[in-house]
């Protein structure tokens, strides 16, 4: 039995990181549950990569603390039960896939060669092919096998689907989900593409401008909001300010995302549960600073 049972996979308290140019992350407090798939979402410059670098011990916090599987990252280095797949998927381009896997075996104390090989084989990637000749999707599958070969309890993936076509994206996610179902490991993955995460992640961490804007179980978050659609005339005054996350209007129709349940009887209005994309986009737009003031909400809608 693991010594970390019952402990959050990742826990941050008042976490902050300041670079020379200013704060990239500030006052972040959250917990990611174990055995679940958590999505880290946010616009460009939100602080996602910085947060991942703090979790993997590549950076040290300027303020607050982060705990990985119950442990504080010590001085430097990645937690032994955490695997990290960086955005540029570092692989030796001149190696063959077979040589890459053997390097994984030589470089890692904990390494399940049969498992890593099996992952590459099931992806249909030829063992004798050079890394430089693989397609983006094949390279991702090899990089994933290299990370999973360490049999991590927590895997952190920085935009694993960027640069992949929709078919390859689906294949990579299916392969990852199959491993999650089989091993019960915890996944934290960042993505700009919210549509990729719908139905896959069960926990959300939404960052904007270096701060946590929304965090929690996806089902609870969706059930805790309502998207109200009704006539734009008089829409502004229909809902108390404190429950409105975002309100948008065209000439005829208003769309208002509110916290909590739909207000009782509202003739002409319909209420429905938002999708993850609608929820995240509304929170990101509402957190967007005025032009010229830092991070912009450019999360792709599809
Ligand atoms: N090494 C660094 N030195 C100075 N500033 C940095 C450094 N790395 C990141 N930043 C700044 O910190 C902020 C957060 O950057 P970060 O890369 O963590 O965001 P991100 O959410 O991963 O963005 P993206 O989606 O564009 O990759 C940005 O304003 C960025 O310019």
From TrEMBL:
<dbReference type="InterPro" id="IPR003439">
    <property type="entry name" value="ABC_transporter-like_ATP-bd"/>
</dbReference>
<dbReference type="GO" id="GO:0005524">
    <property type="term" value="F:ATP binding"/>
</dbReference>
<dbReference type="Pfam" id="PF00005">
    <property type="entry name" value="ABC_tran"/>
</dbReference>
<protein>
    <submittedName>
        <fullName>ATP-binding cassette domain-containing protein</fullName>
    </submittedName>
</protein>
<dbReference type="InterPro" id="IPR027417">
    <property type="entry name" value="P-loop_NTPase"/>
</dbReference>
<dbReference type="InterPro" id="IPR017871">
    <property type="entry name" value="ABC_transporter-like_CS"/>
</dbReference>
<keyword id="KW-0067">ATP-binding</keyword>
<dbReference type="InterPro" id="IPR003593">
    <property type="entry name" value="AAA+_ATPase"/>
</dbReference>
<feature type="domain" description="ABC transporter">
    <location>
        <begin position="10"/>
        <end position="234"/>
    </location>
</feature>
<dbReference type="InterPro" id="IPR051782">
    <property type="entry name" value="ABC_Transporter_VariousFunc"/>
</dbReference>
<keyword id="KW-0813">Transport</keyword>
<keyword id="KW-0547">Nucleotide-binding</keyword>
